[in-house]
Amino acid sequence: MDTLFVFRNLVFGREAGNLVDVVTQTEIQNALKTVKYPGYSRDIVSFWLVKEISISNGAVSVTMQLTSANPEAAQRIKADAECVLKALPGVNQVHVEVRQPATGQPANPFSNQKGVPGVKRIIAIASGKGGVGKSTVSVNLACALEHLGARVGLLDCDIYGPSIPLMMGVHEKPTISAESRLVPPVAHGVKVMSIGLLLADDQPVIWRGPMIAKTIDQFLTAVEWSNLDFLLVDLPPGTGDAQLSLCQTVPLDGGVIVTTPQEASLGVVRKGIAMFNKVNVPILGIVENMSYFTTPNGERVEIFGHGGGREEAARQNVPFLGEVPIFTEIREGGDRGMPIVVSAPNHAAGKAFIQIAETLHQKMF
Ligand SMILES: Nc1ncnc2c1ncn2[C@@H]1O[C@H](COP(=O)(O)OP(=O)(O)O)[C@@H](O)[C@H]1O
Ligand SMILES: [Mg+2]
Question: How far apart (Å, rounded) are the C-alpha atoms in residues 161 and 111?
C-alpha cells in the first residue's frame, strides 16, 4: 500500500465509511457539481437532486431524484454523472440511479427551492449598466407574461432610480390590508411594487445598504403578492456587490441579462453571468435590446452593430432569448405608462417581447 493511499484513508476514511476506499463523499459530490442539469447553467447538486451517495471498496453508488418526469434529462444526467465518476481515481465501479416522479408531481428542477409564499417563480432582470433598457424589458416581459395568461407581479429593486411606476403608469399608493400587509396596485393586470410608490415625488433616497436590503426584504415578505406564477424583479443597474447581495436576499429561480449589441462585446455580459453564478442562480438567457432600427420604408439599420448578444451568449454557453428593436414608441410608451406589449402587441418589438416571455414560460413550467 503506498503512502498516499494510507494518508488519504487516514484523512478521509471515516467520511468514506470504509477504510479501503480512497475516494470520499466530498470528492464524489464535487465531481457531481460539474454535471449541469440539461438546458440549464446550474449543476445537479445545487438543484438538490443528489439524495444518496455510498462508497464500498471503490464501488460508488449514487441515487438522484428528479422533480420532473423527463426521460431525456434523466438519461443525460445519468450518463454525464457516470462519466465524471468513472474518471475519479479510486473508483472502479459506478452505479447511478436517477429516479423520476410519478406523473402529477411538480415538473421542474426549481421546485426544490424555497421562495416567497404564493409566488411560484421569481426571475431577476439584470444588466451591466444603466440605460440599456433593463426596466423597459422588465415591464414588457411582465405584461407579455400576463398577456400569455400568467399571474404576474413586478418588483422594482432599483431603490435609487425607480422607473417602474412611470413605465407601468401606476400612480396610486399601495393600500394596507386587514392583516397589515401592503397590497400592491395593479396596472395592465400586473401587481406592482416600487419604492417610488411609497415616497413623495422628488424625495431622494439617501438610504445606505442595510436599509435597502431591509426594504427589499419587506417587499418580499410584507407585500400581499399572493397567487403569482411569476414575480419579475428589476435589479439596480450593474453587477457589483449591491446587486449580488440583492440576489441573495431574493430567493431567485432564474436571471435574465439585458444587453445592447455594443455592450455585449465589452465583457459586461460576462460580469452578469459571473454574478448569477456566484449565488447559484440559473441564467435563463440574454436579451439584446436596441438591436436594430427599422426605417419608415422598412429598411433595417443596425445602429450599434448587431448580433453581439447572440454571439456572446453562444461564447458563454447560455441561452439567447431574443432581440428587441429600437422603436420610438417604446420610449414614448415608457414615458406614458403604456408598455409596447400592451399598446402594440403585433409590432415587431411587441412580438419580440411576447416570444421571449413564451420561452421563459416554457423554461420555468
Ligand atoms: N428598444 C427600445 N427602443 C426605444 N427606446 C428604448 C428601448 N429600450 C429602452 N428604451 C428607452 O431608453 C431609456 C432607458 O431605458 P430603461 O429601460 O430605463 O433602461 P435601464 O433600466 O437599463 O436604465 C428609456 O427612456 C427607454 O424608454
Ligand atoms: Mg431602470
Answer: 33
| Ligand 1 neighbour 132 (Cβ under 6 A) | yes
Residue 21 to residue 4: CA distance in whole angstroms: 12
pLDDT tens for 260-302 read 998 887 888 999 999 998 888 899 999 999 999 888 887 889 8
Q: Which three cell numbers stand for residue 289?
A: 435590446
Ligand 1 centroid to Cα of residue 236, in Å, is: 14
> What residues pair up with 234 in beta bridges, in sequence order?
125, 156
Report which bound ligand comes closest to the CA of 323. Answer: 1
Is residue 352 scored above 90 in pLDDT?
Answer: yes
CB 35 within 8 A of CB 77: yes
Gyration radius of the chain over CA positions? 23
Going by C-beta distance under 8 Å and a sequence separation of 6 or more, which residues neighbour residue 117?
A: 226
Q: For residue 126, report the distance from its CA to the centre of ligand 2, in Å.
A: 9
Record the pTM: 0.73
Q: List helix spans (H) across the chain.
A: 3-16, 25-32, 71-86, 134-147, 164-168, 209-221, 241-249, 261-264, 268-278, 308-316, 328-335, 340-343, 348-364
Residue 363 has pLDDT above 50, yes or no: yes
Q: In this predicted model, what pLDDT tens digit does every residue of 190-230 receive, in sequence order?
A: 999 999 998 876 666 666 666 777 788 889 888 999 899 99
Residue nearest to atom 8 of ligand 1 (CA): 133
136 C-beta closer than 6 A to ligand 1: yes
